[in-house]
Amino acid sequence: MEKVFDFNIHLPHFYLNDWNHLVYDESDYTIEQLKKNYEHFAVELKEYVCGGNFMFLNESILFQEGIHGILSKLKNDFESCLFTFIIDFRRDDCESLVEKAIEHGAAGIKFHSYLQKICFEDFENVLRITKYAEQKNLFVCIDTSYGTSGMYKYDNLKLAAFLSEFINDVPIVLLHSAGIRIFEAMLLADCKKNIYLETSFSLPYLLGSSLENDFAFAYKKIGADRILYGSDFPYISQRDSMNIMMTFFEKYNFSNTDVENIMINNALNFFCKK
Prior knowledge:
Elements: E1 4-9, E2 14-15, E3 18-22, H1 31-48, E4 49-56, H2 67-77, E5 80-86, H3 94-103, E6 108-112, H4 113-116, H5 123-135, E7 139-143, H6 156-164, E8 172-175, H7 182-191, E9 195-198, H8 202-206, H9 211-222, E10 227-228, H10 238-251, H11 256-269
Parallel strand pairs: 1-4, 4-5, 5-6, 6-7, 7-8, 8-9, 9-10
Antiparallel strand pairs: 2-3
Helix pairs in contact: 7-9
């Protein structure tokens, strides 16, 4: 396989040209920082990916001059390109944020329970803007990584299950496949056919643990047609991410067709044909 579609690409900024100190909170970067970061990452991305879903965790860039330039650059550099923006559901004008994102070519919106501190009392407000996004035919990404001291207070999988009761017409993508709660994610996807699981971060992080087998079982149980490859680049390099995935597929006897669907075809055949 020469190139893949990466469903989870970030362009975080860095401290004083030190790429060993990436800023993990991407909520305050500017368009100029974004351009510089992409210039640094472009060579590696182009080597491994034919298309990608670029995640933007700073919604203020929607209103910054120059956003059209960087988004156009990404579209020109890759055969297929999706943009997903985080949405502040607490804002009175959050619908206008969705409209602004659409104006700039958004295909999806994202919620991050730990960053946004989404607790149960917030679920109705999240649902309101998610319904609005569904009307606009935007898919929904939910960060379902599991960890940090907020793992019990900000339950992202509970949020995903809640939204899935009301959102049926667009995909809901569980980024990171819920980590150690992979079976819970599997059960939710088995019940709701518009739910996709995405591979980024969790498998590399849990490599060598007994959970590897659980991921293989879960992915096969719901079917490879609803699994999306993602790297979480640059927090995991393209080379490492792809090597880990291909080793995983070989170890657990995924067919060549399954591998091609997960690594490229599922995103191209559904998400990029919206």
